[in-house]
Specification:
It is built from 11 helices and no strands. By secondary structure, the protein is mainly α. Helix 4 runs parallel beside helix 10, helix 5 crosses helix 7 and helix 7 runs antiparallel to helix 9.
């Protein structure tokens, strides 16, 4: 009897083209090796610092910078806690790592929201700028009647487009022609007659600057401000880092042999500005 052929193992679907592939994070890798945080411990650790305490620290820093700093800090703690440290458990490290992953998700959410807001803003500015371009081109055409060379310059620079960067370039070119027209006394009178007044050209110049700024914000690296929700997680991460550092320092002072993590710029900044705040956890509630 002929042997049956083994069914071929199904092939894993290839990731979609253009799909973002996130680099594995230090905190996430550590979290997979640490004891899980159940609801009781989460409640206990959340009670360590109030929302107000966390928000006050998170409001002073930028989430992306805090995330990068906390990743390095968590990696150092992971190495340190390969042997027990009095006062700081693997569960507490798992809680810090969980907060760091929550911060990472919050940053992604803010980035998406900021991008949507920026595109909406740019769309409004684009509509106003395109209207100004049409009015500018119409006035220049009227002023250039009988001047073939000037008409060609206007035509070359006047471009109907749905591309924001192209509109910015077209508007800038037409504005330069209008300003040039106003340099002579006769040209100034002619420009005023066709509606290319100094006030109008000043408004076009300001609008061009707004369009340029909107383009830079949408396509550049400006991620916008952190949301209040992100600030809260960000501040909690900083509070937990401060607590861990303080606990490890105390253990070392009591004679335990261990290396201390070097606090980064964000942790150093918030603890200096809040010198009277010891970053000690509040008295936690008793577990249910």
């Amino acid at each position: 009897m002929a042997a049956k052929k083994k069914a071929a193992a199904p092939k894993k679907a290839a990731p979609k083209a253009g799909a973002a592939q996130k680099t594995p994070r230090i905190a996430m890798k550590l979290l997979n090796t640490l004891p899980p945080i159940d609801a009781r411990r989460r409640k206990l650790y959340l009670a360590a610092f109030t929302h107000e305490q966390c928000a006050s620290w998170g409001d002073r820093t930028k989430a992306n910078s805090v995330f990068a700093e906390s990743e390095r800090f968590a990696g150092f703690l992971g190495d340190t806690l390969k042997k027990p440290v009095t006062g700081y458990s693997l569960h507490r490290l798992a809680w810090l790592c969980q907060l760091i992953t929550e911060l990472d998700d919050a940053i992604d959410g803010d980035a998406a929201a900021n991008k949507t807001e920026q595109r909406t803003e740019r769309g409004g500015v684009f509509a106003l700028a395109d209207r100004a371009r049409r009015r500018l081109a119409s006035g220049l055409m009227a002023a250039a009647t009988g001047n073939a060379l000037f008409l060609k310059e206007i035509t070359d620079r006047n471009e109907t487009t749905q591309v924001a960067h192209t509109l910015e370039s077209s508007l800038t070119g037409l504005l330069q022609l209008a300003l040039r027209l106003r340099r002579s006394d006769d040209g100034e009178l002619l420009a005023d007659d066709v509606g290319l007044t100094q006030d109008f050209l000043s408004s076009v110049s300001a609008m061009t600057d707004q369009l340029r700024l909107a383009n830079e914000r949408t396509f550049g690296g400006d991620g916008g401000n952190d949301s209040m929700a992100t600030n809260l997680v960000e501040g909690r991460v900083l509070r937990e880092m401060a607590f861990a550092l303080r606990t490890l320092r105390r253990a070392k002072e009591d004679g335990e042999v261990l290396k201390l993590p070097t606090p980064g710029a964000n942790l150093t900044s918030v603890t200096r500005r809040a010198a009277s705040d010891t970053a000690e956890p509040a008295t936690p509630p008793k577990p249910d």
